[in-house]
């Protein structure tokens, strides 16, 4: 039976917590900010993939260069190791997230595809096995395995990576009052390149500071001290080196803080910027500022979001996700 799965956009690194903290996003206007993958049918020939959606034209032309093909091969291989042999399938990707955006675009495709394929084949893989495969596939793209997009995208909420064999991540409490303004300017930053510009080593002072920020952030979330939590959202690992890749980031940050945003950071490897606000009128002003000043072309967009606590979700195959 055909399956259709939605996987939300996500922020990797919440200012603090490079590669080990991530959050799933849900626009408050109810729009779907994430990819949808359909597995239509078992077929006798070769793997088939079609794509539609706002950013489908940016995908590789060759279906076998699409990460969905690797998702299929990954599941096929795991199942073969368990003695189950599955044939080719027909898939469709509704590509709603821009590639190289900092919104976890490849993670969204991977999570939706692995979850959809797993369901299509009768759910042979448990959550942990699916998530491990998702991390491996994300690592193929970015050059090293990191779960901070795939984990929140799959499980929902704010996730802290544990990376233990039996438990890859833990859900942290999400401050209920926070709005996350998220603005994609319309240009592309490659995650692999944004990782390669980071230093190979950090100073003792930076390591101590990052440890202090991360520990206090997690403590504050559990203590329900949102003010302390937001004060800890400072990036000493990536932002100082990456902000040169984001035109207008520094001036936007200053303007957003003046408007009343509590924290501003780079979403994943950028160029999407996020701003945390605890007041809807401030969030609306920040959103309007970002739409006017941070977007660079017609591909850009800005949303006011909450944390998506659900993560991956089955959706109806309907006109929005169907294809010709
Ligand atoms: N379904 C897919 N979705 C996104 N990227 C894909 C997909 N299939 C193949 N790719 C390729 O994977 C690479 C993704 O690059 P990159 O990791 O920089 O982007 P991303 O995952 O979209 O980034 P971000 O997490 O910042 O949104 C691109 O070269 C793109 O062509
Ligand atoms: N933690 C990753 C997220 C990439 O989206 C990075 O910042 O490189």
From TrEMBL:
Boundaries of every GHMP kinase C-terminal domain copy: 218-285
Cellular component, GO annotation: cytoplasm
Record domain GHMP kinase N-terminal: where: 78-157
The EC number(s) this enzyme carries: 2.7.1.39
SUPFAM superfamilies: GHMP Kinase, C-terminal domain, Ribosomal protein S5 domain 2-like
Gene Ontology terms: biological process: threonine biosynthetic process
PROSITE patterns given in the database record: GHMP_KINASES_ATP
Keyword field: Amino-acid biosynthesis, ATP-binding, Cytoplasm, Kinase, Nucleotide-binding, Threonine biosynthesis, Transferase
Catalysed reaction, written as an equation: L-homoserine + ATP = O-phospho-L-homoserine + ADP + H(+)
Domain of life: Bacteria
GO terms assigned for molecular function: ATP binding; homoserine kinase activity
Pfam entry (one): GHMP_kinases_N
Residues binding ATP, per UniProt: 98-108
Pathway: Amino-acid biosynthesis; L-threonine biosynthesis; L-threonine from L-aspartate: step 4/5
Subcellular location: Cytoplasm
Entry-linked InterPro entries: GHMP_kinase_C_dom, GHMP_kinase_C_sf, GHMP_kinase_N_dom, GHMP_knse_ATP-bd_CS, Homoserine_kinase, Ribosomal_Su5_D2-typ_SF, Ribsml_uS5_D2-typ_fold_subgr
Known function: Catalyzes the ATP-dependent phosphorylation of L-homoserine to L-homoserine phosphate.
Membership in a protein family: Belongs to the GHMP kinase family. Homoserine kinase subfamily.
Listed name of the protein: Homoserine kinase
Naturally occurring in which organism (per UniProt): Echinimonas agarilytica
């Amino acid at each position: 039976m055909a399956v259709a799965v939605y996987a939300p956009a996500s922020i990797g690194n919440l200012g603090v917590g490079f590669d080990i903290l991530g959050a799933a996003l849900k626009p408050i206007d109810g729009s779907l900010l994430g990819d949808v993958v359909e597995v239509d049918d078992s077929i006798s020939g070769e793997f088939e993939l079609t794509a539609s959606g706002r950013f489908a034209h940016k995908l590789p032309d060759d279906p076998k260069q699409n990460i969905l093909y690797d998702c299929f091969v990954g599941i096929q291989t795991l199942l073969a190791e368990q003695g189950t042999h599955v044939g080719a399938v027909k898939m469709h990707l509704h590509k709603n997230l821009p590639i190289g955006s900092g919104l976890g675009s490849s993670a969204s495709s991977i999570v939706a595809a692995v979850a959809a394929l797993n369901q299509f084949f009768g759910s042979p893989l448990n959550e942990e096995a699916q998530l491990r495969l998702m991390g491996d596939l994300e690592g193929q793209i970015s050059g090293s395995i990191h779960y901070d997009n795939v984990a929140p995208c799959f499980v929902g909420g704010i996730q802290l990576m544990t990376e233990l064999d039996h438990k890859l991540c833990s859900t942290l409490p999400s401050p209920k009052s926070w709005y996350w303004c998220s603005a994609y300017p319309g240009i592309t930053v490659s995650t692999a390149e944004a990782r390669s510009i980071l230093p190979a080593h950090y100073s003792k002072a930076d390591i101590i500071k990052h440890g202090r920020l991360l520990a206090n952030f997690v403590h504050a979330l559990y203590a329900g001290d949102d003010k302390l939590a937001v004060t800890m959202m400072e990036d000493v690992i990536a932002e100082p080196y990456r902000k040169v890749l984001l035109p207008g980031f520094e001036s936007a940050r200053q303007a957003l803080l003046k408007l009343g945003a509590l924290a501003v950071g780079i979403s994943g490897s950028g160029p999407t910027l996020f701003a945390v606000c605890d007041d809807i009128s401030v969030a609306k002003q920040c959103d309007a500022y970002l739409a006017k000043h941070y977007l660079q072309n017609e591909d850009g967009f800005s949303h006011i979001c909450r944390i998506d606590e659900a993560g991956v979700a089955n959706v109806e195959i309907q006109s929005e996700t169907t294809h010709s």
